[in-house]
Write a structure and sequence with these properties.
By secondary structure, the protein is mostly helical. The protein has helices at residues 3-25, 44-63, 80-99, 124-148; strands at residues 66-68, 109-114, 117-123.
């Protein structure tokens, strides 16, 4: 599969996951942004922001040759609406970056860094391939956080115990 075909397919997959992800993010109350289920767990607000920013990674992977996760700038949302708007903006940017991909472009190297130190190197394509799975993984974590706080879990791939409308 060439890079253009891959990018087009990836846009379709990203869009398929956007609706369910948005529904989950819309249920994160600002008053629980600091809540976490265990001392070793992420805070709810950070987890939700991570999910909202994963599409932004796609844009960065296409435009640049690295992401430094220690210095990557994050939005500090003041509320749920701002968090959801940030997600929507990031999905829009990822879609635009993917549509603009040219053949051969995704075979360039991509580094994940921490404070300038390379953690691993792969191709842009392989890095992009894992982003939706990464988002889905963290969305699953988020549904557990919602359940633990008695917040209704939305339907995702079918009905949930709280939401029969999909």
């Amino acid at each position: 599969m060439n890079d253009i075909t891959f990018a087009q397919a990836f846009v379709t997959e990203l869009e398929a996951e956007t609706h369910s992800t948005r529904k989950c993010l819309e249920r994160v109350p600002v008053e629980l942004f600091d809540w976490k289920p265990h001392p070793k767990s992420m805070e709810l607000g950070y987890l939700a922001l991570l999910i909202a920013e994963i599409p932004l990674w796609i844009t960065h992977m296409i435009k640049y040759d690295y992401i430094d996760y220690a210095t990557f700038e994050h939005l500090k949302p003041s509320g749920t609406e701002e968090l959801v708007a940030h997600f929507e903006e990031n999905v829009k940017g990822a879609r635009k970056a993917l549509v603009g991909v040219e053949n051969g472009e995704l075979e360039f190297k991509f580094d994940l860094k921490a404070n300038g130190q390379v953690m691993f190197t792969t191709t842009k394509r392989k890095s992009i391939e894992s982003t939706i799975n990464h988002m889905i993984h963290h969305r699953g974590q988020l549904t557990v956080y919602l359940r633990l706080n008695d917040i209704p879990v939305p339907c995702i791939y079918g009905p949930s115990a709280d939401d029969r409308n999909f």
